[in-house]
Write a structure and sequence with these properties.
The protein is mostly helical. It has helices at residues 3-9, 13-36, 40-46, 52-77, 81-85, 100-112, 120-129, 139-144, and strands at 88-92, 146-150.
């Protein structure tokens, strides 16, 4: 397959960004509701930050919500709600549906980097900035051998 044909089939950075934004908003809404009932407004009012353990638990709850909302679409179509709205999907490097393990590992890398103390935020930023390579693969795509294409 020539390079032009390959790149025309890859999802645009724009569609990947906005699909991801939709997925984040879907996660943030229930997390914000939970946090509002578990003392976070008081921390904000007092100028303090909730504990690392609390924030880690909320992060894990967010990952749980992500899978609750997206697992069926991921396992049947290689899509999240955001990806479905932008008509893009995750495939392996041969353009086939990735295995369930590959999909789970993809998001384990995607979310897991942020949980690494001290350097996690930097690793997460590097992970997504890798989309600016010619193959338009983020770090989690490269590690798990997936890509995102138009469908």
């Amino acid at each position: 397959m020539n390079e032009t044909k390959l790149h025309s089939k890859l999802a645009t950075r724009f569609s990947r960004f906005f699909a991801s934004l939709i997925d984040v908003i879907i996660i943030v809404i229930p997390i914000a509701i939970i946090m509002s009932f578990t003392g976070v407004p008081e921390h904000i009012a007092n100028g303090t930050q909730p504990s690392y353990v609390y924030l880690t638990i909320m992060g894990l709850v967010g990952v749980l919500f992500f899978y609750m909302f997206n697992i069926k679409l991921l396992f049947t179509n290689g899509q999240t709600i955001g990806k479905k709205n932008f008509r893009i999907k995750i495939v392996n490097l041969n353009d086939n549906m990735p295995t369930k393990i590959s999909l789970l590992n993809r998001y384990l890398v995607y979310f897991g980097l942020g949980f690494i103390p001290i350097i996690g935020n930097w690793l997460s930023i590097i992970n997504v900035l890798l989309i600016f390579t010619k193959n338009k693969q983020c770090g989690h795509d490269f590690i798990v051998k997936t890509k995102v294409i138009k469908c």
